[in-house]
Amino acid sequence: MLQKIPERMKGKAIGFFGAGRVGGALLFHCLRSGYRISGIYDVNQRRLRNIARKLKVRTARKPEEVVLESDVLFFTVPDREITRVYQQVKSKIRPGTVLVHCAGAFGSELFAGAEELGLETLALHPVQTFVSDEQAVRSLPGSYFALDGSAAGLRFGRSLVRALRGRGVVIKGEYRPLYHALCVFSSNFLNALFYAAEQIGRKIDLAPADTRRILKPLARVTLENILNYGACASLTGPVRRADERTIRIHLRMLKRHLPEAVPVYRTLTSWLRQMLRAEEEKRRGEKKEG
User: Fold this and answer.
1) Which of 103, 113, 186, 235 has CA 20 to 30 A from 91's CA?
2) What is residue 286's predicted lDDT score, i.e. its pLDDT?
3) Do 7-174 and 185-289 share a fold?
4) Mean pLDDT throughout 1-25?
5) Does the pLDDT value for residue 9 go beyond 70?
6) Of the candidates 57, 50, 48, 8, which has an alpha carbon nearest to the alpha carbon of residue 29?
7) pLDDT at 31 over 90
8) Range 185-289 classified under CATH 1.10.1040.20
């Protein structure tokens, strides 16, 4: 159940540039939480018509139409387009308007010159992954959000996050590329690892769907253990056991059957060894202090 927005926020009119997965999900939940939607613009007219029909919101034929009636503007376009769209409309934006983008690797610096124009800023990145419009709507509530911006922008962001039953953490602009890399390690690289597992599965006559089904219990428990006990404490397998013979056999078979996976295997094995060394050094330091 979404929370209702505070009374002081109810009069704010919110406009959207972009009706993709993130923009559409935010639009849906802003409506359900009680925000007033001033309009939405998207270069994809078919997508725009679909979301307007589903959510009964006003669409705009030009970006300027959204700007003129909005107290908050969401730039939920592809990251590379945020600055271009902002530059296109910024001369029409009223002072005091809150400008919002959802790019993970960037902060409020994408809205260059906003402060001089009397505009407020907010970077609002959901720590979540979206593969479809429907899944985005389901998964957005309860997520964490990385925030950056002006004082008024952050107040609006925190209010919206509370309405979404989420939690916000402030990540300043200079650290956002590193924060976004953290998200890539925790999400996108899992896709790469499972792709490698699927390719290995093919070599032993397993279809990708079968490989995923077989690995699902293992992957789920591994992730649960990591979240409950930490990456080091939950590690099992040949590196933890210092089983160099098994590692050599793995590498020999990969060279023969899937050579492109060898560099990945070597790199990750090196990282696991480094992780265990750091764990051991920490343990020794704690013993000395004790």
Assistant:
1) 103
2) 78
3) no
4) 78
5) no
6) 57
7) yes
8) yes
